Model the fold of this input.
Amino acid sequence: MKIYFDNIATTMVHPDVYKYMLPFLSDNYGNPESLHFFGDESRTIIESSRISVAQLINAEPEDIIFTSSGTEANNLAIKGVAEARLSIGKHLITSSIEHFSVLHPYKRLEKLGYEATYLPVDRFGLVNPDDVRKALRKDTILVSIMHANNEIGTIQPIEEISKVIKENSKAYFHTDAVQSVGYLNVDINEMGVDLLSISAHKFYGPKGVGALYVRKGTKMLPLIEGGVQENGRRAGIHNVPGIAGMGKAAEILKDKRKEWVTHLISLRDPLVKGITNLVEKVYFTGHPQQRLPGHLSLCVEFIEGESMLMLLSTKGIAAASGSTCTSRALKASHVLTALGLPAEIIQGSLVLSLSPDNQYSEIEYFLKIFPEVVNRLRNMSPLYTKYLKEKGV
Ligand code: PLP
Done:
């Protein structure tokens, strides 16, 4: 049995998306900038994908910039706005649990003389809109708060945060919707955002293609300069097959999302219940309700996440852990640390992210294997032995 529970890392390419991309990897190979019929075919598919992507988030097609990834979209939004608004101010706000494709650009800008405020989150991973209000200054040029977190699944109160920003400042508001767009209603007007990043490979599209929505009138300089592609806002030849695939994936998603979400919840709930009943000393992380529908995150005490992942993988189960391990040091997840969890709990982090393709039989299989894996690892743990002794077992 091969079970894929790692959809936060990437999703499968939907079979219809794959089929749709094929001509652009074979016969239709024209450069979209070329002024002949080969170029026309590529230009046409790019513009039709732009419409599909725009419709997914209720935007105008001309406000969509295709990029190489969610990472590039985040970098473009942050660095592009920071440079364009330099004369207005140098203060930026974000949260402490953002993806590194937001945090690292912030760190870079700090080195260049900008000032950054990193907002805390509560124990469920929520940013408090009142903290945003308190952090806003006259010279704040950008606030970037993610829509949903990859490690803990928590969904931020984006509309409330937007209201606070608009009422109290002239700062632009960017949100990283890379993890949310595949599962939640993402509407740029309801959310009140000026910039929004998405990535095709998180919603059954291909890897290596993303998009940044930029509201009309928003000042932003390009990161990549050269040709006239994307109206000069992102130079470099288009990834035509990728963009075609992203457009198709957006169309399928718009049509199927409701049905998929219902299915995901019907799988996640028994998974939570099963783990709770079968394994002791397990701490679920993230918000219990305001979270992505197919997302489950937890910490298993007395165990290291990496060992759990490896053993699960030998049993045919692909999952993820919040902590990253280097050969010398175990580096605790910045997200779980921000929740205030102790280091020894954080180490045992596990993230299970489901897809509409998963079946109930896979949940049953996981619930059979998981307690065995946990027991096996705990039996090797001196801390667990100590715990059992103290408990009198
Ligand atoms: N933002 C979030 C929240 C993510 O989870 C990821 C990827 O995991 C990214 C941004 C980066 O997207 P990409 O893989 O397209 O570069």
